[in-house]
């Protein structure tokens, strides 16, 4: 079976009704596009979110799904007549609609091969291929694995020797080849290819990951893969592994320079888990951006390694174009940070970094996570108190969520903190819904507490910087999605009176 044509697609996404829609340019699909083209395979790409932005379907009283419907997607696939189809499943909550899409495609093209990739199949590969309409699950980064799969299909060989793949044999038994090898030199990868996606639509909508932006023409970039940290809630390790692998500063800046020239990009979102983990490399990237006089705004919505930041690096980041820092502090209790979350961070460092960043002129976002097994109400309150105390631009509280691939899910199952019928495919992408029951709180009680403290924190932020706070809310929320902003505000306001 010679593979000549490949179709890559990003599926619809369920979200809570009270949350605004977001659509980020699909970086994984853009990388795969480059790899497939390099092997002379014809490619077609469909992001059902951007193409079906206005198509919204109610799932239940709390959630909606936006994006093209599965039957529409199948029709588009059929017109291309691909030999193989890749579906991205970044979030577990997308797994059900991915199955629907695969089913509709197989109705029209029964012999086509379908593989899924992304966070969910990397964490639950056997679950993915238990669907008869899905032939393969790619575990972890997919560039080399997909090419190996295409080679096997072309030679009518079994994929039994492929690293990081899950599939069904003819007798129905499922074979799992764990991910053991990762790409060592990321500089060998071609830059992501965006030519097959409607980049101008993304620019016009301006709804990327991270919410707050300074410009419209934004493209994501990843400069490294893998994270050695062992945060209990993190589910990224099944994708990138734990070993930190970084692109060279020259390679990173070459890509940014190309994006500016080709697409007139005004802002880059660094989507690394830890761009600043290697401080010297981060400094070198800044030095090259400055030396080449690349005038682009930068932010890193996934967060920066706070422990690696100091005054010197912060000044270089600012001079290179970084305008906003996202600091994943996680907890206001050192005991929770160290003993429960396992994050290698000292709270004294947080105060030092925020003080320096404010003097230099950064906007600062801070993330916290609450609701861990073993976390007491007193420790949780320290987090809320710290959030109200910090002199920053934005504070967000997330609920500890047992995502597939995280140690937290293992703990919750072992200690029976979640129901026996708990389905990770029902977990939303926003980490605002409680799932875990402990001796100190219920999921519902935790949700009410977070909403109430969110309101109190927003009032504290408004008092500190009334003009700046109001401008950010208006520009990045009200103008972009007034309905969702009003819904969220009403629910948060209501929580002030919840007991």
How would you explain this protein's 3D organization?
The protein has 499 residues and is an alpha/beta fold. It has helices spanning 27-38, 48-51, 70-80, 95-108, 119-123, 125-129, 143-154, 199-205, 237-240, 249-263, 279-291, 311-320, 334-341, 347-360, 377-389, 407-414, 443-464, 466-478, 482-495, and strands at 5-10, 13-16, 42-47, 56-58, 63-66, 84-88, 113-117, 136-138, 165-168, 174-177, 218-221, 224-225, 245-246, 267-270, 297-299, 322-330, 363-370, 394-399. The strands form four sheets. It has a seven-stranded mixed β-sheet, with helices on both faces. Strands 11-14-15-16-17-18 form a six-stranded parallel β-sheet. It has a three-stranded antiparallel β-sheet with strand order 2-5-4, with no helix packed on it. Helix 15 (377-389) links the parallel strand 17 (363-370) and strand 18 (394-399). The longest helix is centred in the last third of the chain and has 22 residues, at 443-464. The chain is globular and about 65 Å long. The termini are far apart. The relative contact order is 0.09.
């Amino acid at each position: 079976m010679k593979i000549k044509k490949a179709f890559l697609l990003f599926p619809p996404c369920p979200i809570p009704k009270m949350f605004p829609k977001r659509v980020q340019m699909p970086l994984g699909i853009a990388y795969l596009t480059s790899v497939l083209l390099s092997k002379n395979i014809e490619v077609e790409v469909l992001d059902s979110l951007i193409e079906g932005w206005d198509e919204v379907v109610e799932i239940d009283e709390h959630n909606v799904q936006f994006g093209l419907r599965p039957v529409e997607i199948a029709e588009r696939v059929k017109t291309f007549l691909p030999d193989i189809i890749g579906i991205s499943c970044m979030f577990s909550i997308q797994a059900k609609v991915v199955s629907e899409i695969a089913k509709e495609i197989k109705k029209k093209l029964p012999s086509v091969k379908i593989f899924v990739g992304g966070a969910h199949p990397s964490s639950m590969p056997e679950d993915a291929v238990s669907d008869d309409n899905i032939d393969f699950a790619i575990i972890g980064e997919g560039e080399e694995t997909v090419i190996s799969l295409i080679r096997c299909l072309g030679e009518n060989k079994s994929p039994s020797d492929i690293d990081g793949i899950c599939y069904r044999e003819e007798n129905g038994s499922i074979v799992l080849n764990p991910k053991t090898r990762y790409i060592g030199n990321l500089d060998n990868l071609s830059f992501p290819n965006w030519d097959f996606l409607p980049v101008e639509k993304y620019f016009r909508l301006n709804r990327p990951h991270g919410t707050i932006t300074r410009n419209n023409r934004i493209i994501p970039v990843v400069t490294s893969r893998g994270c050695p940290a062992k945060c209990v809630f993190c589910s990224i390790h099944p994708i990138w592994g734990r070993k930190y692998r970084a692109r060279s500063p020259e390679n990173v800046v070459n890509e940014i320079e190309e994006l500016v020239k080709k697409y007139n990009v005004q802002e880059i979102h660094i989507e690394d888990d830890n761009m600043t983990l290697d401080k010297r490399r981060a400094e070198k990237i800044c030095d090259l951006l400055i030396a080449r006089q690349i005038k682009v705004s930068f932010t890193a919505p996934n967060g920066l390694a706070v422990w690696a930041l100091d005054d010197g690096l912060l000044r270089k980041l600012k001079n290179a174009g970084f305008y906003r820092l996202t600091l994943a502090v996680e907890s206001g209790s050192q005991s929770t940070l160290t003993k429960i979350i396992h994050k290698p961070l000292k709270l004294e460092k947080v105060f030092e970094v925020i003080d320096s960043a404010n003097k230099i002129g950064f906007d600062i976002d801070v993330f916290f996570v609450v609701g861990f097994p073993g976390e007491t109400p007193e420790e949780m309150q320290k987090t809320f108190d710290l959030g109200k105390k910090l002199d920053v631009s934005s504070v967000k509280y997330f609920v500890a969520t047992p995502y597939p691939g995280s140690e937290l899910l293992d703990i919750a199952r072992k200690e029976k903190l979640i129901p026996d019928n708990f389905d990770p495919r029902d977990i939303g992408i926003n980490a605002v819904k409680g799932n875990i029951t402990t001796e100190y709180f219920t999921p519902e009680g935790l949700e009410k507490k977070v909403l109430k403290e969110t309101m109190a924190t927003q009032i504290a932020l408004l008092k500190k910087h009334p003009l700046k706070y109001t401008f950010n809310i208006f520009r990045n929320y009200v103008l972009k999605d007034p309905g969702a902003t009003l819904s969220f505000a009403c629910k948060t306001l209501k929580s002030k009176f919840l007991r």
